[in-house]
Amino acid sequence: MPAPLWHSPAEYTGRGRTRFGKGRYACMLNSRSKRVLIYSHDSFGLGHVSRCRTIANALVAADPNVSVLIVSGSPVIGSYEFRSGIDFVRIPGVVKQIETGEYDSANLRVGVEHTLEMRTRIIRDTADIYRPDLFIVDKEPTGLRGEVVPALRLLKERGTPLVLGLRDVMDDPIALAAEWERKNVVPALRDLYDEIWIYGLPQINKPLTGIEVPPSVRHKMVYTGYLRRDLPLHSDVPHEMEEIDGPFILVTAGGGGDGADLIDWVLAAYETDPHIPYGAVIVFGPFMSAAEREALKERSAKFRNIRTLTFTNNLGALMQRAAGVVAMGGYNTFCEILSFDKKAIIVPRTRPRLEQFIRARAARNVGLIEMLDADRGRDPHAMATALRQLPQQGLPSDVVVPGLLDGLPNVWRLVAKQLAHPHRGPAPLEEIWSELGPAAPPAVPPARART
After folding, report:
1. pTM attached to this predicted model
2. Please, what is the end-to-end C-alpha distance for the chain in angstroms?
3. Residue pLDDT, tens place only, 171-192
4. Which CATH class is domain 239-398?
């Protein structure tokens, strides 16, 4: 028989330390805590979970009474370091096919529809039980195939503030408009969400340009600036970096699922030009296929000044020490480049979205980074020339962009405003237990708590 889903508060805190007075029980949920729920669908790569983690760590650092629960489909969320006050619910994973954009179950031997049904129920039940004071949805307004809509409706009925957090660039406006029309996104923006936070600046990009939305939706939009990244709480340096003699270039493919071409291009440059002044530390990413990774490692091993890593949860430590960066240019890598003030060459992907290309082009136009367009051909000499010129390239800090990295303090101000008036809906467990009198809570959970 499975263990009961409902327990007395003493079972949660140990040795009955939650007893008060004549045997009454205090709820395990601190009535003075401020609860934030964050949803991140995480079907591909590391970007969404990294952004949510950054925000969560900033919130609990700003106020010790804040608790953050992240609902995520990322298979590597447990590899990241979180501050006290943060936990996560891991929902069954899905994976996006790069060429088609279609989804499939990542690990379970069930159909994607079955997986999405499980995810939808877990998300809604988590929102129901956790009873957040604020719900932040990352990037996907209705979730993966609408999976977050039941939770949004539940919390909307309870008066919980609902926020959509968008990165600075979503996609090409024509493609985004078609996608949002198909997903019926605009009604959700209009009727469900209270605010829309854009983690960027309008002078870099306006993500809803070209999208037909009512004025009420545009009035909800707030630009926060980019999210500054700091070194992790425990910033141990991977030993591979210590083996590099002299300055090195960090080459990062993000999650790595579509990063093999970038690393192949960099290695081809080293194979072509022996005069590239710096060595390299190459981070493949956890989602690169084993066959691609092994082939690239074999090529890298021929160079005494190139080291490789499959994955590190401390990319910031590598980037801080690097002389420059070569990357694909996802949102989080871009924020790290700005935060650690690194000379960078961005090689954006253009499939299945133009997001990275649009961001890189805009950043290059204001002088923050340099860009190579892989769609014009992967000439090894072009990459080698860019790597040789990297030492003479300007720093992002050479360009003055007011408010560029003010994202986290601005997000905290927006969150604090919402948490000033908690909204938790129905009667809390404290009230339910107080009605039970001095006796211990029943051994059998209420019917609605069963699954």
Report:
1. 0.84
2. 13
3. 999 999 999 999 999 999 999 9
4. alpha beta
